[in-house]
Hints:
- By secondary structure, the protein is an all-alpha fold.
- It has helices at residues 3-24, 30-54.
- It has 2 helices and no strands.
- Helix 1 (3-24) runs antiparallel to helix 2 (30-54).
- The termini are close together.
Amino acid sequence: MPRLALYALIVCLLAIAAAVVSFAQGSWLGIVWVLIAGLSSNMCWYYVKRGKVTN
Length: 55
């Protein structure tokens, strides 16, 4: 797994955890964390697929 894909996966997991905590506390800021998780998930898939093409 390429390094950038791993970093994007870590950001995705942390954003999901932050969204869960935000929603559990009753904050609507969790929507922003969900959007960040979606973006980083797409970045992770992109870097994984790009890594497979170049290898």
